[in-house]
Amino acid sequence: MIKLISKLGPGLLFAGAAIGVSHLVQSTRAGADFGWGLIWALILVNIFKYPFFQYGPRYAMATGESLLDGYFKVGKVFLVTYFILNIATMFTIQTAVTIVTAGLASSLFGLTDNMVVWSLIITVGCYLILLFGKYQLLDKMIKIIILILAVSTIFSTGVASFNSSDVLNLEQVFPTGTGLVFLVAFMGWMPAPLDISIWHSIWAIEKNKNEKITQKESLFDFNVGYISTVILGICFVSLGALVMYNSGVSFSNSGSVFAGQLIELYTSNLGDSFYLIISICAFTTMLSTTITCLDASPRTMSRATQLLTNNNNKNYYFHWISLLSVGTMLIFYYLLSEMGALVELATILSFVTAPFYAILNYKLVVSNNMPESHRPSRSMRILSVVGILFLSLFALGYILTRFI
Questions:
Q1: pLDDT higher than threshold 90 for residue 351
Q2: Could you give the C-alpha distances from 180 to 169, 245, 293, 394, 397, in angstroms and in order?
Q3: Residue 279 — pLDDT band, cuts 50, 70, 90?
Q4: pTM of this prediction?
Q5: CA-CA distance, 284 to 293, in Å (whole number)?
Q6: Which residues contact 110 (CB under 8 A, 6 or more apart)?
Q7: Residue 224 pLDDT exceeds 60
Q8: Are the C-beta atoms of residues 119 and 102 closer than 8 Å to each other?
Q9: What is the mean pLDDT of residues 381-391?
Q10: How far apart are alpha carbons 65 and 371 in whole angstroms?
């Protein structure tokens, strides 16, 4: 068992990155607004996105290369496109997840209610951990964080179910009007934007440097992480349905404010004795996302820079993690009032680029770059084609509902 756990790593990092705003805010809000009525959407989108996330570690273990290397082989324009898209979103996404984490840290630890101060503490803390502890420390930390997150979330869901006197209503709904806009956003971020598959491919290679793993072990690790995101997504929807549905509370659109409302409402329904558990559950959810995002974007940008400059001998990780940390802190100071517009831009780009990453990932795993024995099965190929159609219609639906 210990040997099996030691093989886990990139899949849990994937879970740590995915289980963030999509779960704590979006999934809980889905339960708060629609009860269990959107469980169908959660399950459906996870099924259709599964192949494209799985192709990250599959390609990495089969070829010894990241998905970025594959994009470069398909065509330099695809890697340049990724580089530009990531520049446009990584600072905003890092700031958004950090500010929610800061709000939860303030609620849990006190000390100060200044969000900028807490954001700086969290950013600097994560920066130092990643810079000096490197991948090995992150690999060990995420196992502890995900364990605490899973136990506290499942326990909270169990307590909420036990305390609820409402009859379980699993009737599924299809929202209309403004609810349709929320549905599109909910499915777009569940379990995460597709470019995280690139992060996973790089983490898989990094893991393999420190401890040799087979493709079978790598895919098992991925499945553990992916299934965890689905189960915890259902838990957060259930918590919203059990504690917040028909509560009459008007929820804020701000992630950090909503997180505070969430903790307050949980404790008012479950009792003050559960305040610490709920706070730890929420804080670890966002801390895992904050630290994995701060590690992943610099790793991908470092590799992209190496490929674009044809310089594999120089590691640009330090340069990119420093730039991302400083850029994030500058946004806290100067652009915090514009966060709404910045997050909206990042959200739109994540939604409309999903088919781009899905098609590229699928093209790589069925190409001549991929050893034939490691290519996906016929059923996975069929699911991939259906998934590409689904994500393309989804992106088009978002554009139509958002701008027309």
A1: no
A2: 21, 18, 28, 12, 10
A3: confident
A4: 0.86
A5: 14
A6: none
A7: yes
A8: yes
A9: 94
A10: 12
Determine the residue type at 263: I
* CATH classification of the domain holding 264: 1.20.1740.10
The span from the CA of 201 to the CA of 119, in Å, is 29
DSSP 27: I
Structure tokens at 395: 């992106």
Task: Count CB neighbours of 261 within 10 A.
Answer: 18
- Among 126-130, 205-209, 395-399, the range scoring the smallest mean pLDDT is 395-399
CA 276 to chain centroid: 24
pLDDT at residue 2, as a whole number: 53
Residues 6+ apart with CB under 8 A from 200: 10, 11, 13, 14, 53, 56, 57, 60, 222
Q: How confident is the model at residue 18 (pLDDT cuts 50, 70, 90)?
A: confident
Query: Which residues touch 8 (CB under 8 Å, ≥6 apart)?
Result: 143, 221, 224, 225
Place of tokens 């028909």: 246
Over residues 151-191, the pLDDT tens digits come to 877 877 887 777 777 667 778 888 877 777 778 778 877 88
What backbone phi and psi angles, to 5 degrees, belong to 386? -65, -40
| Residues 198, 178: Cα–Cα separation, whole Å | 32
Phi, psi dihedral angles at 225 (to 5 degrees): -65, -45
- 339 close to 100: Cβ distance less than 8 angstroms: no
Distance CA 222, CA 14 (A): 8
Which residue stretches of 240-338 are H helix?
255-270, 275-309, 317-334
User: Which is higher by pLDDT, 269 or 117?
Assistant: 117
Classify each residue of 55-64 as buried b or exposed e, where b means 16 or more C-beta atoms within 10 Å of its C-beta.
Answer: bbbbbbbbbe
The answer to whether 92 and 326 have CB atoms below 8 angstroms apart is: no
Q: How many Cα atoms are found within 13 Å in the side-chain-facing hemisphere of 384? A: 23
- Both tokens of residue 35? 């009860």
Looking at the 3D structure of the chain, how many domains does it have? 1
Instruction: Name the pLDDT band for 15 (thresholds 50, 70, 90).
Output: confident
Residue 245's domain spans which residues?
Answer: 2-403
pLDDT of residue 382: 96
Q: How far apart are CA 336 and CA 353, in angstroms?
A: 25
Residue 59 has which token pair?
Answer: 């390609």
CA 204 to chain centre: 17
Residue 241 one-letter amino acid: A
Asked whether 85 and 239 are in contact (CB, 8 A), the reply is: no
